[in-house]
Structure formats: C-alpha cells, structure tokens
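=== Structure Prediction Worksheet ===
Name of assembly: unnamed complex
Input type: mixed (protein and possibly other molecules)
Chain count: two
Listed entries:
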Amino acid sequence: MRKSRHNLKSPEQELRIFRVRALLALVVVFSLTGLLMGRLAYLQVVQHEVYTTRSEKNRVRVEPLPPTRGLIYDRNGELLAENRPTYNLTLVRERVEDLDATLTRLVQILELSDEEAEAFRVRSRQRQRPFQPALLMSDLDEGQIARLAVNRHLLPGVEVEAQLLRYYPDAEVMAHALGYVGRINAEELERLDPGRYAGTHFIGKTGVERYYEEALHGEAGLRKVETNARGRVLRELGRTDPVPGKDLTLTLDKELQHLAYELLDGRRGAIVAIEPATGGILAMVSAPGYDTNQFVTGIDVASYQGLQEDLDLPLYNRAIRGHYPPGSTIKPFLALAGLVEGVITPDKTIYDPGYFQLPNDSRRYRNWLRWGHGRVDLERSIAVSNNTYYYTLAHDLGIDRIHANMTNFGFGTRVGHDIFGESNALMPSRDWKRERYNQSWYPGETLSVGIGQGYWQVTPLQLATATAVLANRGDWVKPRLARTLGDEALPEPLPDTPDAIELVNESWWDRVFSGMEKVISGHEGTARRTGVGLEYRMGGKSGTAQVFSLGQDQKYNADELAERLRDHALFMAFAPIEEPQIAVAVIVENAGGGSTHAAHLARAMTDAWLLDDEEPDVEEIREEMDEDDARLAGN
Amino acid sequence: MALSDLSRPWRPYPVKAPASGMSRRRGFWERVHLDPWLLGLLLLLMGAGLVVMYSASGQRIDTVISQGIRFGVALGVMVVIAQFAPATLIRWALPAYLLGVAMLVAVELVGDMGMGAQRWLVIPGVIRFQPSELMKLAMPLMVAAYLSRRELPPRARDLAVCALIVGVPVVLIAKQPDLGTSLLVGSSAVFVVLLAGLSWRIIGLLGALAAAALPLLWMNMHDYQRRRVLTFLDPNSDPLGAGWNIIQSTTAIGSGGVLGKGWMEGTQSQLEFLPERHTDFIVAVLGEEFGLVGMLAFLLLYLLIVCRGLWLAAEAQETFGRLLAGSIILTFFIYVFVNVGMVSGILPVVGVPLPLVSYGGTSSVTLMAGFGILMAIHAHRRLLPR
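=== Predicted Assembly ===
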C-alpha cells in the first residue's frame, strides 16, 4: 500500500502545485505588505498632525513659576510681613510607584513623630491636579535636607523644593490687622484660577492678606521644559517670568500698634486708632492676639484646639467683629442728632431730678448719679454723662430719627474699605425689631438706646470711625489699612464714601467738642483724672457697657465668673481738637474700674501719636489705672 | 506508517551524477553554497538594523557591538548549515523534533521563570536555552519531511498526522506562555501544509473551524493575554497600563511624518517614552526617526528578501526542500508582518521581534540558521539538464 502511494507521487505535479501556491503566497505577502504600508501612510501622513501634537505633549511639560508674594510694610516702611527662604518636601503622586512604602521611608528619614507622620499621610492623599507636586512638609531643617539628599535615589517623585515662606516678625501684635496666609485648601482649590495659582501653595486667609490677596499674589509665570518619560527635566525650552506681587504699605504705625497691644496686655479688648483726615487706620488691635506664623506652616491640631477653646477667644477679632453696647460713648452723636433734627438747641437745658419718666408711666429711668445733676445743658450733659438729658432727647427724637442719624455716622453698617470680615453689628430700628422678634417697638426701648444700651451694638471700628467723622466736623472718611499698593495710592476719596453730615450751624460742632473736652479737662468731667498734665486739647467720651457674653456655650468656673461679669469700659476720643490727627476707640472687657480705665489707654494712644517724647511708659499708665481701680473699690 | 522511516535517506527519483570531467567551473558562491543575492540583502538589513540600534539603545555603542557579535555568530551558523545537503537535513528532522518536544516538556516541569513566563531551560553555569527557538526550525523540518514522503496534495489522514505533529509543541509553547512563538511555530507548519497543496475545500473548512474555535481560545487565554487583545481593540481603555505601549508607539510612528525627525532625534524614543524601544518596538524608533520613507525602505528590503527566498524555494528540485524553504521564508515574513502590525496598532501585542533588527541573540541565530537551510537547499541542487 505504501509502496503504491509512493509510486503515485508525481514530481512534476508537486512542483506545479508548489509554484502556484508560492505565487499565491507572494500575492498575499504583497497585499499584507501593502496593508502595512497603508497603515504607516495613515499614521505618518494623514494623522501626522495629531501624533505630532501628542508627541509634543509627551515631551514638553509646562511648569509653573509661582510669583513672589508682595511684602507688607507699615507707614514708616517697617517690615510687617516678609518672605523667608525655606525648604519644603513635595511629592508628585503620579511618579511614585508605591506611595505607602515611600511615605514609610520618608517618616524614617525625617524622624517624624507618629502624629506628624499621620498628618503627612493625610496631606499626601489630598486631592491635587495630576502631576502637580503636593506639599508634604514645610520648613525642613538642615539635617532632614541632608538625609533626604543621601536617600534621594530611593525616593522617586519626592523633591525638596526651595520656597519662600511667609513670616510675620510681629505676629501676635499684628495678628488681627494683617491676618495670615495658609495652605490652599480643597475648597479654595475649587474656586481658584488654576493658571494663576499653579505652583502656589499659600493663600491669604484673613485680614489684609486676604483682602489684598490678588495684588499681593502677583502673576504666575511658566517655563516649558523638555522631560523624559520619568519626568526628569532635561532642558528649558522657553519661559515667561512671573510678575511678583505688589508690595503693600499700610497706614498702620508699628510702634503705635505695639503700644496698643501692650496697653491691653493681659486683658481682653480692642483699640482702634484712625487718622481722621485720611481714614487711615493707625492701630488696630484685638487682645489677646495669637502667633499667626503657626498658621503658615500648618498649625497642629492640639495648638489649634487650644486657641479655639481658650476662654479669652484669641482668634476672635474684637476690633471688627466684637459686638459691644456702646454705652455713653454715643452721647455726642445723639446730641448732634438732636441738633440736626431741631429737638434741642445747644443752650436748652433740662432739669434732672435723677430719673426720667415716660408720660403715663410710673417707671423711673434712672440717671447714674442717683440724686441727679440738676440743670443740664448740652455741654454739661456730655461732660458729666447725664442720662436724664439723653432719655429726654431720645424720647423726643424717637427711634426712627435716632436710627437714621446714627446710620449716617456709620453705626449698623460696614464702615471699612479694606477690612476683611467686618461685622455691621446692630443699629436697632422698628423694622429690625419687627423682623427679628415680630414685635412692635416700645417707647422704653428708645430710652435704652438713648444711653447706648438695649439692642444697640457697635464694633470698636465703628466707634473709632464715627469719632473720626465727628472730629472731621461731619466729613466722612472710610477707615482703611492700605496706604499704597505697589506704587499706587488708593483712590481719594474711597469709593462708596457716605455723604458728609452737615449742620445748619457750624458752631454746633464746637459746642459738642467743648462738651467732649470737658469730659477730660472739665472740673466735673467723667474722665478728668485722665486729663491731668494734658499738653494738647483733647475731646472724648466715656462709656460703660453691661456685660453680655461673647459665646453662648462657654462654661465659666466660679473664680472667673465674677471677673467676667464686670462691666466693659469704653472710651472714644480725638485730638487735638483744633486739627484732629487721631481718633481712637478703646474697649476693655470686664475692666471693672469704670470708664476711666479705658480713658487712660486712649490718652496713652493720643500722647504717643501727638507728642514726640520718649517712649510712653506703659508701666506708669498701668499703675495709674490700678490706683483708679483701688480708689473706686474703696468708694 | 512509521515515523522512523523518515530518518532513512531517501531519493524520490534517480539523479544523474555530473560527469567529473564535464563539470563546469564552479564559482565562488557555489563553492561556499551561499546565495549572494540573499546574503547581500541580509547584510544590508543587518547593517541598517545596527544603525537604528545605535539610536534605539540610547547611543550605547556596546549594545550595538554586542548585537554585531550576535550577527556574526548567526552568520557563522548560517554558513555552516548551508554546507549540509537537504538529504542530511531530512535525517535531522525527527531527532530534532523529538529533542525539541522533550525539552519543551522539561521546561514545563523544571523550566526557569523569566519575565513572568516559563521559557528557559537552564543547565546552571553552562547554558540558558529556549527550546521553543529550536522548535521554530524543527517544526517545518518535521512537517516538510513527513509530507514530502506522502502523495501530494495531502489527504485528510496526512493532515491529522500533521495536526498531531504541530499540536503538541504549539500547545506546550503557548502554555509557557509565549503566544508569539507558538504563533510562529504553528504558522511555519501551516505554511508547509498549504504549500504542499492542501485542497481549497479543506482550507475553507479548517478556516471556518478555526473561527468557531476562537471563543474557546479566548476562554483558555491568560488574563494578561486577554488584556492585550482588549487593549488592542481600544488602547485608550488603559492608557497608563497595557495601552501605554501601543499609544506611545503609534505616537512615535505618526509624529515621524514622511521624512522623520532624524537619526537620534526622535523625542519619543530618546526621551524613553517608547517602551522596549530596542527590542520588540524598535520599528517605532525607525518610524519616528526615519519617517515613512525609512519605513518603506525597510519594508521593501524585507519584501526583496521574501521574493528572493520564494524564488530559491521554487527553484528547489525536491519537494522536501521546496516545502521547507517556502515555509521558512513565509514564516520570516510573518515575523515582519506581526511585528510591524502590532507596533503600528493593527494587531494585538504579541512578543514577536522585528527580524534581524530587534535586539536579541537567539532569534537572530534561529533566523539565520533558517536562511542557512534555505541556501543549502538551493546550493545543493543537482544540476539537471533542462
């Protein structure tokens, strides 16, 4: 069988078949080659542009060049916020092969505590644009930098990046005026223009840093670099330099600010001083302050909790957000309202039996001096801070006219130009009460408002501003912190400046001023002890405010209870009367010693600003205040 | 029938021995049993390949030298093998095949893992060897030897025997897993059968059967193999993982344009975006740096080699030689087609190098040994009067 099969083999036929098949194979080979060629022509000719773009995108990386943040100076060119070179640890997650292993290694190399390590892990997971470095740790020390450099080959995707870090030399004193910068958080990341903030890790969080964020930040630049597949930069292909942020010069005076902070040392309170001619804020202090530098590098949880739970509320900016009943400090403004509305004349007197009664009402609204001041005119009403005069005035004006006139002085409004987070506090009105309590306004409430109590609340900034407007004889200035931004001065007048307050008779201003001068320099002035040895003419008005707590859910221990239930002391003042150069509002919480306490601080401020003397002696001022306290306690 | 028959020398028909006195003066190429055309084309290809290699290796001259040495060894192997007559080769068929299968089984049992696949047979300190490479030659040799003794065109029974001969090693190689090599080994056998004149009816039938078996194949594939196929269908489904290779290689080729970015100027290759740039994906470097013109030149070179190879095969006097030579040269083309096809994104990624250009010693030696066989078959023709 096999043999026969062999015999059937036909070499010629096999050759023929082979040649046909080989030819066919050749045809297939040619067509497949043609297919390849077609594919290549498609890629390299038809789609060439697409792939060229893709290849460029591979190779060329655009790196942001973050701008240098503008510096902040006080009015005399003293540096308040600077940029210090520091070294940061960054990580590009896309270039890290094993994130957990890398982090563990980093924790070892940097010798971090468990808590730091945890914060570290959280930051590494924070949402980030692809291929953007995430900031793991700021402010590496030299040992850490050296150890990282040695282990660099073990840590792909991890870089030590030199960066300028914000630093506040007078952090505590300036805390509430300047604010601070902090790490950009997820919410801000959402909102920010990714182009402008590429490569920037910090943003202004509060205060001037926040308000002038745009100008201080500057414009990011960029550089195009060629990188290899592992992301290493091989050369620079082109660059646009960043535009540094504008330097900001403030109206603040560093020395005055320091003085204000020292004056309030150990107390809770606020001092705001304004230059009446310009509205420039000379000092704005809320005490206690806090170290804003902690927030720049990222405050640890314990410290932050400590600040938040501190009974003295150091994070709370009392100067612009603190709500205080103004007490008697608003009597000069009410007197002016009476003059404007024709309810009183400067020479009109009332008789004070020690109390005021509403018609058909047996309730007696008492003067602070139980037996009364007797006959009281406008100037004396201010000097002795007579309540009965203002009960009468308030009753005659009515809440509507009080509200309108006080609003003209800025009460119940946001007065500041560049103040971030300012509160408008509360200037009560019929409408407000109906909306808030769904009740009509009672005449007795008008009387409370007449002596700066009741619903009326002011911020220290509002009180200082109203004082400046008063000192300007009605010309409005909006308080502001910035003097120049880069080379440009702020516009004059500032936008949305309210209209000036005009009196029919200009001399009425002098009558009110005279009353205010007598507060300090008059023989029966409420702050006459403060006027001793005064070298210029100063007008002021004292006030005490009954306590209301700042927070609703604070727990007081028994010792602190008494201290924290004492009255707040307020004082507003300006000087010199002829040509006012400073208007100041002082609030000392739970001062206890009465209004004179705040008056001493106001005098210290005006002295420091107006006299070229040696440094004011804070110790001496404090001693005087303690003497006053002792005398009052003895009474 | 017995397979052992195959090892006996066998002459299909009497050949007239040339009278010694009448022998015409043999030229140099005939004396060394080499085909100058084919050799010239191969040398040209290898030379051009080394030029591309210099750029693809990141300008590392030692890589180029090492590749050159491998080429030298491969050429030596080719020259040696070309000296054997087809009658000798046919005697090697069965032992070589059995040895190959035995070693594949050994790999399956004690083989060394390398790059996630069990492909290597190691005698410690002596040699590392991939039995599948041997199979690339032993397979067509075996099938050609078998079929050349059968009446052609092959019948169904012959086909069944062939299926057995092919099936065992192909399955073993595919299990390693090495899809590329098993594809090459399998197709080398298929080419023998097709060239032997398998009837179109059976071809159609088998084709339909194969299509029906595709789902079965899919179910038996490794995860990574499936992923490759899926990635091929849509590279962007996993751009940083499995799709990366293909996206980067098409980007490299496409951005090369008509004239290319210039030698050593390809950004995709030089900046290491291109993976495996001096091995399986070297054609992307070629496409990026030398453009469509360079690609067409290389394809033309390959086409000329295939044409010459087929010509040599068709010239062969004996069926065995014809089938073997045809299979070798067509398998060579399959290398080119699969490699260029996968790198340019029209075929899924399987590990097939660009012949005589990609870095790698074993495949070059196997390929050149194949060309040695081709030349042997041609050079040892009996001179017959036409």
